[in-house]
TrEMBL record:
This is Glycosyltransferase. Its EC number is 2.4.-.-. Keywords: Glycosyltransferase, Membrane, Transferase, Transmembrane, Transmembrane helix. The keyword Lipid biosynthesis does not apply. Coiled coil: none annotated. The chain crosses the membrane at residues 185-202, 208-232, 514-539, 551-574, 581-601. Residues 76-160 form the Type II secretion system protein GspE N-terminal domain. It is a multi-pass membrane protein. It is found in: Membrane. Gene3D superfamilies: Spore Coat Polysaccharide Biosynthesis Protein SpsA, Chain A. It comes from Falsiruegeria litorea. Pfam families: Glyco_tranf_2_3, MshEN.
């Protein structure tokens, strides 16, 4: 391309933001693209939206992206560049590291003698990258390009290095990626020793397991009871102290851009339903950046999405293959660099968030203390009537997300995050290295790392509906992945108990022990706990001869109290969610959890044999869908 075909801007700084917007608006009105009334409305919207005027106009449907680019070209006197027709070269991109281009959303396009032409979609921000380039001895001038072309060009140039980095973003001290076959030998040896001891001294081993089972049951039940009490106290305070609205901190602030990642893998049925559900969101579309994260070699999902018409605020990021690892956290780590928002959220493929969810998240972040960097929404199910298991799953989720987890958060303990309806302050998420790409419950692990770094998670009163896994074997596979991830997370963070204690403090340290040991112990030692029924029915128990009668009575009391507590929490939870038809099903939960034992031992086996294996949950199987506000 010759120099005469380029209209290059001078080196003077860009105009002030409000002047730039007025000039762009005049170009749009003068060329008949929008009306004066539409411009006035767009400027009014911009008073509360942290977005360029052009993006607001496109989001309102008054102009196309191409219209805005052409008018920006006129406004700034900058040449339009087609990066698909003439893509950047590796030689040009090597002038600066990938992090620089990604941060500024620019890419080197062409060289004219000593001048490097930099493609940008925001010429009003070009001076920010230009100053750094000048410091590096680069003479740079802007050309204008579509932002999606810039992102695609960066992905094409750096996909190998970014894919490699996505697997190692988290500090190796807090990652399970260092686990090799030889590091799992102690677990294998311990299992063999336990089996041998059980054969040689069964009574002693059974007694020891019995004591551990009672201890873990008591540990988790104590955490559950305290959380329940805190929940009841908060409900009482909420009823006696009505909401007074936003604090003064929330008055007049401009809404930020929010990126929400939706990882999809081998999803054939869910795409069209997902777009419909997300289309109900009421947050301004100019500030909404929904990113569908697909594996590059996942032909099923890629073909499905290709057949689906996406609105302008939903885009696709394809994650290139690297070592064969195809986990959700790896995909999100890769996509994080391409997100536009100051707030980063996560939804799952089958999610149906409440329409005003993003608004609630933004308002809470704006009003929350600075150390609150993560918000966890309430998860619920839209198909509780699909089967008995779906009813029980709904009761379990209601108990956890409406009663127990809010109590844990209010006590400022470690909050083991759920895998969806999570929202983070972007800077902190990047500071922590995102997610551990090898951990199959990356959410729980991130919750621990947030707390270790001195940050807090809050529960927010907004609901996302999911699909309850109501079929038997898929339920076992999903639960085994969760439990395996809990095992991995606990072992990683307990590599150095003294360091964990120093990071968390005594109260949070014991809270973490209560959650992880209690959860895992209840499933792995469930057969031992079930033996309590022998005593309740007046039958002899194998360990009665080895333990005092008073301790056996105490143990039975703990067991009965735990069951009663579970009933109380379950009833309170489903009542809170206004699903009163589930109250009668709460007692049947005693028959629901035994299947978790199979999942726990499957998880234990995979912990040794294949710790990074992600047992995929298939979505789109439920027929019924209920998403009324609750």
């Amino acid at each position: 391309m010759s120099e005469q075909h380029l209209r290059l801007v001078s080196s003077t700084p860009a105009l002030a933001l409000d002047q730039t917007h007025q000039r762009l608006g005049r170009h749009l009105v003068g060329n008949g693209i929008i009306t004066q009334q539409q411009l006035v409305k767009a400027l009014h919207l911009q008073l509360r939206l942290k977005a360029p005027i052009g993006e607001i106009i496109v989001a309102e449907g008054w102009a196309s992206k191409r219209d805005i680019l052409e008018m920006l070209s006129l406004q700034f006197g900058v040449q339009l560049a087609d990066l698909e027709e003439t893509p950047p070269t590796k030689e040009l991109c090597d002038v600066m590291p990938a992090e620089f281009w990604l941060e500024h959303r620019v890419v080197p396009w062409m060289r004219l003698g000593p001048i490097l032409l930099i493609a940008t979609s925001r010429p009003d921000h070009f001076h920010l990258s230009k100053s750094t380039l000048q410091t590096a001895g680069v003479i740079a001038l802007p050309v204008l390009a579509d932002e999606e072309q810039i992102v695609a060009a960066l992905a094409a140039q750096y996909k190998k290095s970014l894919a490699a980095a996505a697997e190692e973003r988290v500090d190796r001290v807090y990652s399970c990626r260092t686990w090799q076959s030889e590091t799992r030998i102690p677990a294998i040896v311990a299992s063999i020793c336990l089996a041998a001891a059980t054969y040689l001294i069964p009574t002693l081993v059974l007694t020891a397991l019995f004591l551990v089972a009672v201890a873990t049951l008591l540990l988790f039940s104590t955490l559950k009871l305290i959380s329940f009490v805190v929940y009841l106290q908060s409900k009482f305070r909420a009823s006696s102290q009505p909401d007074t609205g936003l604090s003064s901190k929330g008055i007049g602030f401009r809404l930020p851009k929010v990126s929400v990642m939706v990882p999809l893998y081998k999803e054939r049925e869910i795409a069209s339903a997902l777009i419909t559900r997300l289309g109900r969101l009421t947050y301004p579309k100019a500030l909404l950046d929904v990113v569908l994260v697909l594996e590059e070699k996942d032909h099923i999902t890629n073909e499905t999405v290709a057949r689906t018409e996406l609105p302008s605020w939903i885009r696709v990021i394809r994650v290139p293959e690297h070592t064969g690892l195809t986990t959700k956290p790896r995909a999100m780590n890769y996509a994080l660099d391409f997100c536009k928002g100051d707030i980063i959220g996560v939804w799952d493929a089958e999610d149906a968030p409440m329409p005003d969810q993003i608004q609630h998240v933004v308002e809470r972040f704006n009003n929350a203390p600075d150390d609150v960097v993560c918000l966890q929404g309430i998860l619920d199910y839209y198909n509780p009537r699909s089967s008995w298991r779906a009813r029980c799953f709904t009761i379990e989720y209601s108990s956890w997300f409406r009663v127990i987890l809010p109590g844990i958060a209010r006590m400022k303990l470690v909050v083991p995050l759920g895998g969806t309806t999570l929202f983070f302050k972007r800077k902190v998420l990047e500071e922590l290295g995102g997610w551990d790409a090898h951990n199959v419950t990356e959410d729980a692990d991130l919750g621990v790392r947030l707390c270790r770094a001195g940050y807090r998670t809050e529960l927010i009163d907004t609901v996302t509906f999911e699909e309850a896994n109501f079929r038997t074997w898929p339920w076992v596979k999903q639960r085994s992945r969760w439990l395996k991830g809990f095992m991995v997370t606990y072992l990683v963070h307990m590599r150095s108990p003294s360091k964990l204690w120093a990071d968390l403090g005594a109260r949070r340290f014991f809270g973490l022990q209560a959650f992880f040991l209690g959860t895992l112990g209840q499933f792995l030692l469930a057969p031992v706990l079930w033996s309590f029924w022998l005593i309740l029915f007046g039958l002899p128990h194998p360990v009665q001869a080895a333990l005092p009668a008073s301790f056996m009575t105490f143990s039975v009391g703990v067991f009965v109290a735990t069951e009663l507590l579970a009933l109380a929490v379950g009833i309170a939870a489903v009542t809170s969610s206004k699903r009163h038809f589930l109250v009668g099903w709460v007692p049947s939960m005693v028959f629901y959890f035994p299947l978790g034992v199979l999942a726990a031992y499957k998880a234990l086996y995979e912990l040794v044999s294949d710790p990074f294996f992600w047992d995929k949950t298939q979505h789109g199987q439920a027929v019924e869908e209920v998403t009324d506000p609750i």
